[in-house]
């Protein structure tokens, strides 16, 4: 199978980065989140919640690998199996159970990197990758000084509030990062390394912003309309309102 | 129900079946959908379709797990068809 080099490089880098020391989590913690993301698909409680009119109607405990705190397991399982019905009250319950916003954002990034790479490999007929090795090191626990509340449940860092000691998460000179600060860009920006972890994987899978808006040519082996149709279908399947 | 017949996008039926299968995470259904897509396109198209599907299977979870709202301008531009498609009713189902 002949893959685009940028696509393979991005997936390889994102996968191995899961095992690296994080900003708010250790490498071992990050690998455990990836493992739990896969395990969530076998959780009977998640299966019952998924089919219930309300997830609150299905009671019980998650079947987990036992490596993460209960709030982490709840977050991983719901994001993996029922993300379209997540609401503010659910997030506030996670906070009440001790989840830090920054650690949550980093958790989200690892779950979605795992989901995206696993989905890609399943789709093209490749076996799932073995989990990356956890690297040693303590989290840096560095929160961007310019982070402000909103637009989502956690604070975020907008391009205008980025400081010199923040990584260049929105734009590089020269690129390839060209992110203008749409709300979806801001979603993970409270942890800039997590935002870059996701977007450096996602753009080779989809398109960069400038490519998305350039209808004079196609940048992939499928057309703009085909790409957007697929994006809309997946959003509908996952009940994503954004 | 076949909802793909008149969308005006080349190979829509095969692409949408591929998306449905991959998101369902069922290897057998996905293999069948992949073969059907390959029969009418080529390997590069299948790979790029898989990449878009996989990427959006991730990014939709970011949007929903962080509670980000749609930007005001986008909400205004899409107001009528968001009502028509029932998208604006989705927040009522969040817990």
Q: Secondary structure elements and their pairing?
A:
The complex is a heterodimer of chains A (about 240) and B (about 100).
Chain A: H1 5-18, H2 27-39, H3 44-51, H4 70-81, H5 88-96, H6 101-124, E1 148-149, E2 155-156, H7 183-186, H8 192-205, H9 209-213, H10 224-237
Antiparallel strand pairs in A: 1-2
Helix pairs in contact in A: 1-6, 1-8, 2-4, 2-6, 4-6, 6-8
Chain B: H1 12-24, H2 27-40, H3 43-66, H4 72-77, H5 79-85
Helix pairs in contact in B: 1-2, 1-3
Shape of chain A: globular
**Helix-strand pattern of chain A:** HHHHHHEEHHHH
Our measurement of the CA-to-CA distance between the termini of chain A, rounded to an integer number of angstroms, reads 34 Å
Largest sheet of chain B: none
Largest sheet of chain A: 2 strands, antiparallel
Sheet-strand content of chain A, in percent, reads under 5%
In the predicted model, the low-confidence regions of chain B spanning at least 5 consecutive residues are none
Helix proportion of chain A: 40-55%
DSSP strand (E) fraction of chain B? under 5%
Assembly state (oligomeric): heterodimer
Individual helix count of chain A: 10
> What is the CA-atom radius of gyration of chain A, in angstroms?
18 Å
**In total, how many beta strands of chain A?**
2
Number of domains of chain A: 1
How do you describe this structure in short?
Helix content of chain A is 48%, strand content 2%. Chain A is mostly helical and 242 residues long.
How does this structure look, described?
- The complex is a heterodimer of chains A (242) and B (95).
- Chain A is mainly α.
- Chain A has helices at residues 5-18, 27-39, 44-51, 70-81, 88-96, 101-124, 183-186, 192-205, 209-213, 224-237, and strands spanning 148-149, 155-156.
- Chain A has a two-stranded antiparallel sheet.
- The two termini of chain A are 34 Å apart.
- Chain B has 95 residues and is mainly alpha-helical.
- Helix content of chain B is 67%, strand content 0%.
- Chain B has five helices and no strands.
- The mean pLDDT of chain B is 90.
- Chains A and B meet through helix 4, helix 5, helix 6, helix 7 and helix 8 of A and helix 1, helix 2 and helix 3 of B.
